[in-house]
Amino acid sequence: MSQLSEREERVKWFQADRFGMFIHWGLYAIPAKGEWVRNAEEIKAEDYCPLMEEFSVKNYDPKKWAKLAKQAKQAGMKYAVLTAKHHDGFCLFDSKLTDFTSMYAPCKRDLVREFLNAFRAEGLKVGLYYSLLDWNHPDYPHYGDWHHPMRRNEEYKEKNHNFENYLKYMHGQVEELMTNYGKIDIIWFDFSYGEMRAEKWRAEELMKMVRKHQPHIICDNRLEGSGESSGSIKTANPTSYAGDFISPEQMIPPHNLVNELGMAVPWEACITLNLHWGYNSEDKRYKSAQMIIRTLVECVSKGGNLLVNIGPNALGEIPEESCKILEEVGNWMKVNGESIYHCGAADLEKPEWGRWTKNGKYLYAHIFEEQVGAICLKGLKNKIKRIRRLSDLSEIKESDYWNLMEYRENSFFHLYPSMTCSYPLPDEKDTVVRIELREI
């Protein structure tokens, strides 16, 4: 089986589930300025590592997190990814290779194991994020590295680092995650930059080990790095470490993503609920539930997934604002999830009133904009079997316009059966109409 066909098999569940939760959590929740605080303030290890002495996480209850993600009754998110280790090097799991873990913090808990058990119990797929960078390890490059907190500290200018020793450590930790926690559905590596990419990480060897232990697992494309270099996921012959999906961050691609053969490539946009990945106590610029819903629809309409991040605080609590937004999204998904799960691009021109998603013979019209009169279904005349409002499956009649005869290739409908209008929208966030196509 080719690399492409193997990938196609691995990602089937991923492209059906479409919606996931990202969780950035670690020591950086204590200074509460985001996960890059050590980098941004160029904090020395001796000033940062003592934060571990305060990491009690006394209110951490991953069962509550899992219920929020799923929102019960088969609605909401279908998978979740937790930061097992972020760039600061602090591990939320029981690693035999370092003492810089939650097992040596006041909580004395394997937070990864608890997360995995709780989310699996809710029927959710589980993934682990692992940073390729490590600002705590003595053999990860310090002075002159683009991202290390000590990049400008003259004390490290002449210091030699045994990078091979770091790679042994990094590979060893990944193997711990792949062998000590049962089935893992996603491994989310972050990130490559400059010369720190691909075989600099001994990526082929790393992925061979990962797939030896977890042959079904899917992986993002950040071992290889960005761009479309030889062997990347967007080429006809991707490397073994090119990944199973592209991972655009804090943006949605302008169109569906394809490789050089024109074949669709799986992708997943990851976005924050506010402006930070890790907890930031001052960041109250949260996206609305409407924006999250419409962003999810946009991703699916382009053949992609959406991974929405929450950043718990130092106590292990998800901010109340995040909970309210996700509960609102979950309520919409309970009614309209059919138009998201197992759906993809419709291969139709984007309509002026919203977006399309499609699953087999069903088209889903996601209506974002009110229309003065009828909703126009461009090019669908004589192709429609029936139209129903998804929220209650109430009948919607197909119609046309007597004074627009030059647009005979189009069909139309009104949202309100007894009135020739489509305003106000029954659901201002996104009113979904299911259109069943005729068998051709």
What can you tell me about this protein's structure?
The protein is α/β, with parallel strands linked by helices and 440 residues long. It has 2 domains: 3-339, TIM Barrel (Alpha-Beta Barrel); 354-437, Immunoglobulin-like, CATH 2.60.40.1180. 23% of the residues lie in helices and 16% in strands. The chain contains 10 helices and 15 strands. The strands form 3 sheets. Strands 5-4-3-2-1-7-6 form a 7-stranded parallel β-sheet. Strand 4 (186-190), helix 8 (203-213) and strand 5 form a beta-alpha-beta unit. Helix 7 runs parallel beside helix 8. The chain is elongated, with a radius of gyration of 24 Å. The two termini are 33 Å apart. The model has no long low-confidence stretch (mean pLDDT 94).
In short:
With 440 residues, the protein is an alpha/beta fold.
The mean pLDDT is: 94
User: What general form does the structure show?
Assistant: elongated
The profile of the biggest β sheet is: 7 strands, parallel
Task: Give the CATH topology of the largest domain.
Answer: TIM Barrel
| Radius of gyration over C-alpha positions, nearest whole angstrom | 24 Å
Strand-and-helix sequence, N→C? Answer: HHEHHHEHEHEHEEHEHEEEEEEEE
Q: Report the sheet-strand fraction.
A: 15-25%
As a percent range, the share of helical residues equals 10-25%
Number of helices: 10
Task: Using the coordinates above, name the CATH class of the largest domain.
Answer: Alpha Beta
- Please give the domain count: 2
Number of strands: 15
Strand order of the largest sheet: 5-4-3-2-1-7-6
Helix-and-strand structural type: alpha/beta
Under CATH, the homologous superfamily of the largest domain reads Glycosidases
In the predicted model, the low-confidence regions spanning at least 5 consecutive residues are none
